Amino acid sequence: MRHDEIDMSIQIPAWDGTSRLVKELWRIEEDGHVGSCSVWAHAEGGELRLTVDGVIRRRDVTHHTFALPIVALAWQERLPLEWTPGRRRGNPSLH
User: Fold this and answer.
1) Residue environment code for 48-82, b if the CB has 16+ CB neighbours within 10 A, otherwise e
2) What average pLDDT does this structure show over 17-37?
């Protein structure tokens, strides 16, 4: 899913004590890896999770739901640079 296909409207349900998936914003499958960004219900509002190959790599919690798609777009731009933990932009020796 490309970033221009992200549904910018996110409705976080009222917190009931259980963290649960609200929606997946995007998913990328490339070079044998799967990266995804999803929104989860959280006590403080919404939690954005970036996973690579099923492992949570980043999390961001906010009560400003309008910010979640903006952060999701920024994370999407960095993939596939984050496929491996040591890999960083500008340092090709860490592949």
Assistant:
1) bbbbbeeeeeeeeebeeeeebbebbbebbeebeeb
2) 91
